[in-house]
Write a structure and sequence with these properties.
Layout: E1 3-6, H1 28-39, E2 47-63, E3 66-84, E4 87-93, H2 98-112, H3 139-143, H4 146-162, E5 167-186, E6 191-209, E7 212-222, H5 230-242, E8 253-259, H6 261-273, H7 277-281, E9 302-304, E10 327-331, E11 334-335, H8 342-348, E12 356-357, E13 365-366, E14 371-373, H9 380-385, E15 389-397, E16 409-420, E17 423-436, H10 437-442, E18 444-447, E19 452-453, E20 459-460, E21 463-471
Parallel strand pairs: 8-15
Antiparallel strand pairs: 1-4, 2-3, 2-5, 3-4, 5-6, 6-7, 8-21, 9-10, 9-14, 10-11, 12-13, 15-16, 16-17, 17-21, 18-21, 19-20
Helix pairs in contact: 4-5
Length: 473
């Protein structure tokens, strides 16, 4: 049994008050029953929040026609917060054994003693927002046999290798899936459950020609194995690797830059991350004092919507058990909202946006879950056709580490294709794009019609920016 401490409370419950917590179940009702049993032990003057989670994950990696690794993991755990007189204590256990539940509550109570009083510290309360009825769970994934998962990984490697004669190898071919169920109960009346399934295929191909080697990836996503497309993932990996053969460093200059969906999703995720209420309150966001300002091109409407079932990260409830909801962050270029959990909302004098994020081993943080922007009405090919001199970026390196969230400055290594006279031209690599987030947002000149959800908390879409600094040779 493992119990971990975070700042916290007085005394543990007596043996006379211990409920029967045997016979636990792993479905939503069973997890909620465990959370409710812990909450029922609240002493006078204290508020309790209990979060219970059960997760399973499978990963299969194929290499050279064999299974390189097969991993299956399962975890269960509970996190308990106790709040009394503005002080918070937290503890968690990586087990749902009866003794652990009693002990983790006692640890959380003990930890209250070490906490600093904070007038904004409290357990979330029901806010009346209805929980969306989302279809995010697929029994077919749970029932899918391991042998079929193995076969899919092997087939992905085979198809990737045979997609093009220039493919010299497959760095990795992987099948992965996960199922998760969680429950939240509080003394303030919150009772919430959720469960989701998800699976993916990913392949990294190696293309070789005249002694040069390039890499490229492909993927397919779904909620059950029947949603996955092995051929598409293999073809993407082959195309993205082979089209980079013969790449050179471009000349430095200021030219139009086009981000493909994979890259734009990373960029939009960073932008949305700066609209986090906690970061704003700690002075770690470049938009801290700009609520209501025009911060981007009028083309940009940025939304965080975890209730969109198409999003791979969709969920009906947040980390505090409140309903998730559609939050418009930027509308027509105007900054409309920051995302909040209940504590940051109290500090800001507003209400939670249903954006608490956490696992059972942590207290609630704040974050976006499913970010996307409103797509345009032109295809990527049509957007490229309108560019006389530019760069299509298909991959970046060090983007997250290269961004300063306070100043907005960033510099990232990139690779992609040159655009000449409205057509894709030679592949280019080892160049750098440098700008600021603020300038990028205002320099947005076109958005594609190819919005697509990717294996991250943001959807991608083709984005075209005016002249940016590209540093090559």
């Amino acid at each position: 049994m493992t119990v971990r401490r975070r700042c916290g409370c007085l005394g543990s419950p007596s043996a006379e008050r211990r409920p029967d917590v045997t016979g636990t179940r792993d479905d939503e009702a069973g997890l909620l029953a465990i959370a409710e049993r812990v909450v029922a032990m609240a002493a006078p003057g204290e508020a309790i929040e209990a979060v219970v989670v059960h997760e399973r994950e499978t990963e299969v990696r194929a290499y050279e026609g064999e299974i390189e690794s097969l991993t299956s993991a399962e975890s269960r755990g509970i996190g308990v917060r106790v709040v009394r007189d503005g002080r918070q204590g937290f503890a968690y256990a990586g087990t749902l054994d009866a003794d652990a539940l009693i002990e983790v509550l006692g640890e959380a109570r003990d930890n209250v003693e070490f906490a600093t009083p904070d007038e904004h510290c409290a357990v979330a309360e029901p806010d009346g927002v209805p929980v969306a009825d989302l279809d995010l769970y697929r029994p077919a994934l749970v029932a899918h046999p391991t042998e079929a998962k193995v076969a899919m990984a092997l087939e992905l490697e085979r198809l990737t290798r045979s997609a093009d004669p220039r493919i010299s190898g497959v760095e990795s071919a992987e099948y992965g899936d996960s199922t998760s169920a969680s429950a939240v109960a509080t003394t303030t009346g919150i009772r919430a459950t959720s469960r989701e399934t998800g699976c993916f295929l990913s392949a990294y191909a190696l293309a070789e020609q005249d002694g040069e080697t390039q890499t490229g990836f492909g993927f397919s996503l779904g909620r059950e194995p029947g949603d996955l497309d092995v051929a598409t993932a293999a073809a993407q990996a082959a195309e993205r690797s082979t089209r980079m053969l013969g790449s050179v460093k471009p000349a430095s200059g200021r030219i139009a830059v086009v981000l493909d969906p994979w890259v734009s999703a990373q960029f939009l995720g960073i932008v949305a991350g700066t609209l986090n209420g906690e970061s704003v309150q700690k002075g770690r966001s470049l938009f801290a004092d700009r609520l209501g300002d025009e911060v981007a091109s009028p083309l940009l409407t940025l939304v965080d919507d975890p209730t969109d079932p198409a999003a791979t990260s969709a969920t009906a409830t947040d980390g505090e058990g409140l309903a998730t909801r559609r939050n418009v962050l930027v509308s027509g270029g105007r900054l409309e909202r920051f995302v909040h959990n209940s504590e940051t909302a109290r500090r800001a004098g507003t209400t939670s946006t249903g954006s608490a994020v956490r696992g059972y081993s942590s207290t609630p943080g704040v974050g976006v879950r499913a970010v996307s922007i409103r797509g345009g009405d032109r295809t990527p090919a049509e957007l490229v056709a309108g560019i006389d001199d530019g760069v299509l970026v298909q991959g970046v390196s060090g983007l997250h580490s290269g961004v300063n969230p306070v100043s907005g400055d960033f510099s990232t290594g990139a690779e992609g294709l040159r655009i000449r006279g409205g057509e894709l031209a030679e592949p280019i690599r080892e160049f750098t794009i440098a700008s600021t987030i603020q300038k990028m947002l205002t320099d947005l000149v076109a958005i594609g019609d190819d919005v697509q959800w990717l294996p991250m908390r943001a959807a991608g879409v083709t984005l075209v920016f005016g002249e940016l600094t590209v540093s090559g040779v």
